[in-house]
Amino acid sequence: MRRETQNVLLVLTGGALLKIAFGGSYLRYVKPSQQPLLVAAGVVMLLLAAVAIVRDIRARQPRTSCGTTGSEHARSAWMLLLPVLAIFVVAPPALGSDSVNRDSARDAATERTATFPPLPPGKVVELPMNEFVARAGWDSRDSLAGRTVRLTGFVVRDEHRVRLARMVITCCAADASPLTITLRGGEFTGLRSDDWLRVTGEVEPGSATEANNYQPVLRVATLRRVAAPDHPYEQ
Fold first, then answer.
1. What pLDDT does 91 receive?
2. Whole-number CA gyration radius for the chain
3. Which of 41, 74, 90, 135 has the fewest beta carbons under 10 Å from its own?
4. Which ranges of the chain would DSSP assign to H, the alpha helix?
5. Smallest Cα–Cα separation from 163: which of 215, 118, 123?
6. Residue 224: φ, ψ to 5°
7. Which of 31-45, 64-78, 153-167, 220-234 bottoms out in mean pLDDT, i.e. has the lowest?
8. Is 168 exposed, middle or buried (0-12, 13-18, 19+ CB in 10 A)?
């Protein structure tokens, strides 16, 4: 690869990282806490590109690889540059129902031995999906019993049921895993997969079992469509 191509690739990659970091789309790839790392990586790449460009201008000795023609250089350069250029043009969506359908199974304990602190007082308690699923599946004190909760997630539809889902990440979208609950008793006509909902209801006692991979059932009281949140993933 020619030095000029290397420099252009560094500039584009660094610029793409900064665009993602400051444009908000980085939340589709990594956790919010990793924004400074993306910014730092982008700045370092741009600085490296600047140093390399200055050195090449001073040297004024363009280099070529032995045994490779100019046309081959051009083709290989475009193959490397196209994925980076695509980041400036296309912003991929956050993981959704397709990812849930591909991998809905998850490891689960077989006994209800965990204990959780009491839920806060109030007529409706807003919970993240991962806490709701954990309490429904493993809380030996049944802290969800008789309590109305509010959950936010996206729709996953199949022939037999409507589910509410959320993707959970540890580091980035590459390690994302789905959490799902089954919705019952609501009006689901017109809902499509990947629609975002805010739902209130009560857990169906004993519905999270080993047989269904500890996916609880929520008896729906109310539901409404909402815009996708700025942070689509839970942690």
1. 57
2. 24
3. 90
4. 3-23, 35-59, 70-89, 97-102, 129-138
5. 215
6. -150, 150
7. 64-78
8. middle
Q: At what angle do helices 3-23 and 35-59 cross, to 10 degrees?
A: 160
Query: Which residues, at least 6 apart from 180, have a Cβ–Cβ distance to it below 8 Å?
Result: 100, 104, 156, 163, 164, 165, 215
CA–CA gap between residue 119 and residue 83 (Å, rounded) = 47
Give the model's confidence band at 107: pLDDT under 50 very low, under 70 low, under 90 confident, else very high: very low
For residue 207 the two structure tokens come to: 């519905």
The predicted model gives 131-150 an average pLDDT of: 91
Contact 105, 213 (CB under 8 A): yes
The tokens for 225 are 């469509």
Domain boundaries, the chain: 3-89, 97-225
Nearest to 180 by CA among 145, 207, 149, 156: 156
pLDDT at 175 over 80: no
- Does residue 53 surpass a pLDDT of 50? yes
Report residue 126: phi and psi, to 5°. Answer: -85, 130
- Tell me which CATH homologous superfamily contains domain 97-225: Nucleic acid-binding proteins (2.40.50.140)
Residues whose CB falls within 8 Å of the CB of residue 174, separated by 6 or more in sequence, listed in order: none
**Distance separating alpha carbons of residues 105 and 179, to the nearest angstrom:** 9
Question: Residues 178-205, buried b or exposed e (16+ Cβ, 10 A)?
Answer: bbbbbbeebeeeebebbbbbbbbbbbbe
